[in-house]
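Exercise 3.2. Students should predict the tertiary structure of the chain below and write it as structure tokens, then compare their answer with the key that follows.

Predict this chain's 3D structure.
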Amino acid sequence: MNNRFLICVVFITLAFSCNKNNKETIENSTANSENKNELKSAEKLTTEIEKQSINLSEYSNLTPIEIKDSKQKDVFKKYGIEFGGVCYSCDLAIFKINKKSFDIVELCDEKNFHSYKDFSYQKTGNSLKIITPESTFIFTKVENEPIYKLKIEGQKPEFKNMRISEFYTQESLIEKFEEHDCGDFQG
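Answer key:
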């Protein structure tokens, strides 16, 4: 009888100790799952807050420019309109960016455009990334003034009668550049 009692006590002790560890495992698993959900929610909230804090008005209407004199310190003399694309062939693309659409529009014919509704954007340091299903457009600020160098990753878009420039600036600043129009050029 003593052996049976001793075996029962050992068995009950083992059963309770296993049950306790099992309960801790279940509680830890549930806690870990809740923590992961909290982290995902926090990351999603952070992303939404970051998107709301990105001021897209700085990028709302970007027009093409090119380097005119790389030795110049004054950015308004260093850059100017891309004469051939603006005055002669009129085949350059401008970018119009807002929270609802990302549009690539021909400079001289606004009827020729490509609009992305399915896109996302993020700002890291001095760069704005516009991510579309096919390509990523990276506008990197290269001067103290809003002068952006454009880099395209992924599939490079091809448009009829529309060429993408290497540098862009805000349309509202064009008049400040030394070379800002076609002058006396008759085309």
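Discussion points: The radius of gyration is 30 Å. The helical segments are 2-53, 75-78, 83-88.
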